[in-house]
UniProtKB/TrEMBL annotation:
Gene3D superfamilies in UniProt: 3.30.465.10, 3.30.70.2740, Vanillyl-alcohol Oxidase, Chain A, domain 4
Domain of life: Bacteria
Pfam families from the UniProt entry: FAD-oxidase_C, FAD_binding_4
Flavoprotein recorded as keyword: yes
Keyword annotations of the record: FAD, Flavoprotein, Oxidoreductase
Residues covered by the FAD-binding PCMH-type domain: 48-226
Protein name as catalogued: FAD linked oxidase domain protein
Cofactor(s) needed for function: FAD
Entries under InterPro entries matching the protein: FAD-bd_oxidored_4_C (IPR004113), FAD-bd_PCMH (IPR016166), FAD-bd_PCMH-like_sf (IPR036318), FAD-bd_PCMH_sub2 (IPR016169), FAD-linked_Oxase-like_C (IPR016164), FAD-linked_OxidoTrans_Type4 (IPR051914), Oxid_FAD_bind_N (IPR006094), Vanillyl_alc_oxidase_C-sub2 (IPR016171)
GO MF entries: FAD binding; oxidoreductase activity
Length: 495
């Protein structure tokens, strides 16, 4: 990965910048000492780390605005950060940039059960919203595996999903509005506690923008009624290809499960050793399929899914008969990432998305790539919507293994694009997939996207070095092309 050039002028002004920030936010909210900055040197994508110039923890919108205005006036780069659980390096700090942690913005400001929404600050954790509304039978649908720790602001930045996103959508489908600060400190509101807004849909543009357009200060989320009932099936197969084919058959039958997850043999064993959920150790692949809704409907759909699985050669099919058993089925899947960490000193968690019908082909391709790169892989993914999470196992202490793991991951993502998929489903591009963007987008596509960034951040100070392999200056985006001495549209008058 090519690193950004460090602005030595900014580095030379470090003491001055720290002093100015302390004048804006007094006390311990400006972290200057190296030992205090170390916890912020990377996010969940730990293969890369940078020590930030300084860390700032504003606790009010006014403080955030003042910090942004100072950085804007002095051309200082800024990296917004939530809980730091991002798996693509989206919150990787810059040596010559201010890292702004939003975790002091941690209040649930309003819960409106009548309109089925809640207004929360970006530092509120994902799971905290569901806990706050559970007593009235509501919940917040997106549920990333890191939901006990990840922040709503980070979810907005990366358009996070989770095991139930197949039926209930990702963050973009469950956020009604945001308030955010632009790089110059201006506050803008997009959407709100209503179903739709007039004009351009800027809200959908901001969700998934990876902190490159503004810093979110408030989020209005959609609340859903908890389903009347839910049952889960744990289905074992003697091959990943058979499991993938079963996924395609279930969706083709018009059944949309609340969740549909798949794990291969290495992941099954790791999760079972970690959680003891009763997973089938002799299976090569396992599906967890959850159906929710009215009990009569759920029982009917459970029977249909069981029949489809058996037709596809399922070797075992267990159906939950209690809430405790259903939660036990999910416990291993929710803990799969830390569980796989017991198999290897390090791993890369990839995030590509493919058409469901391509699951058997891609899983076979990943197995071939594992042989090619001589690295093990454990597959854990959201099978229902084709969002793959291959976990590439490596040891960073062995020379060349990190590079081999990155090459392996790049090949997986190229394969995803080749079969009609995309580079990411919910983790974002960050620095991890940045240099692969030309695999999916041509130069015109990328210029259009950079043009949008210029409209929000003309100085290119917000989270630079992420998403785009080459970030043109905004002035360059408006350049006029001269071909063989001729300007475009020579017949038009020019002034």
């Amino acid at each position: 990965m090519k690193a950004l050039d460090v602005d030595q002028t900014i580095m030379a002004r470090r003491r001055e910048i720290v002093a100015a920030l302390r004048a804006i936010i007094p006390g311990e909210a400006v972290i200057d000492a190296e030992i205090g900055r170390r916890p912020y040197e990377s996010d969940g994508f730990t293969a890369y780390a940078n020590l930030p110039l300084v860390v700032v923890l504003p606790s009010t919108t006014a403080e955030l605005q003042a910090v942004l205005r100072y950085c804007y006036a002095n051309a200082i780069k800024v990296v917004p950060r939530g809980a730091g659980t991002s798996l693509s390096g989206g919150a990787l700090p810059l040596q010559d940039g201010v890292l702004i942690s939003m975790m002091k913005f941690n209040k649930i400001k309003e819960i409106d059960f009548e309109n089925r929404c809640a207004v929360v600050e970006p530092g509120v954790t994902n799971a905290a919203i569901s806990r706050a509304v559970d007593h009235r039978g509501f919940y917040y649908a997106p549920d990333p595996s890191s939901q006990i720790a990840c922040s709503i602001g980070g979810n907005v930045a990366e358009n996070s999903g989770g095991v139930h996103c197949l039926k209930y959508g990702l963050t973009t489908n469950n956020v009604l509005g945001v308030e955010m600060a632009l790089m110059d400190g201006e506050i803008v509101r997009l959407g709100g506690a209503f179903l739709d807004a007039e004009g351009y849909d800027f809200l959908s543009l901001v969700v998934g923008s990876e902190g490159m357009l503004g810093v979110v200060t408030e989020v209005t989320v959609r609340l859903l009624r908890k389903p009347e009932s839910a049952r889960a099936l744990m289905i074992a197969f003697d091959s990943s290809e058979a499991g993938g084919a079963c996924v395609a058959d279930v969706i083709a039958a018009g059944i949309i499960p609340g969740g549909m997850e798949m794990m291969d043999r290495p992941a099954i064993h790791a999760a079972e050793d970690f959680v003891h959920a009763g997973y089938p150790r002799d299976a090569e692949a396992m599906l967890i399929v959850e159906l929710d809704g009215p009990p009569v409907e759920v029982n009917h759909l459970v029977g249909l899914v069981e029949a489809i699985a058996l037709k596809r050669g399922a070797t075992q099919c267990r159906i939950s008969n209690s809430e405790a058993e259903r939660l036990a089925f999910w416990a291993g899947r929710k803990a799969a990432f830390p569980a796989v960490g017991r198999l290897s000193p390090d791993y890369l968690c990839m995030d590509g998305t493919i058409p469901r019908k391509q699951l058997p082909r891609v899983l076979a391709g990943i197995a071939e790539l594992s042989e090619k790169h001589k690295l093990r892989v454990a597959n854990v993914f959201h099978a229902g919507d084709g969002n793959l999470h291959p976990l590439i196992l490596y040891d960073a202490n062995k020379p060349g293994e990190l590079q081999a793991a990155e090459d392996f991951g790049s090949d997986i993502l190229r394969l995803c694009v080749e079969v009609g998929g995309v580079l990411t489903g919910e983790h974002g591009v960050g620095v991890e997939k940045r240099d692969l963007m030309p695999v999916m987008f041509n130069e015109i596509d990328l210029d259009q996207q950079i043009g949008i960034k210029c409209a929000f951040d003309e100085k290119m100070l917000l989270n630079p070095g992420k998403m785009f392999p080459t970030l043109h200056r905004c002035a360059e985006m408006g350049r006029m092309h001269v071909h063989q001495g001729q300007l475009p549209f020579p017949e038009l008058p020019r002034f």
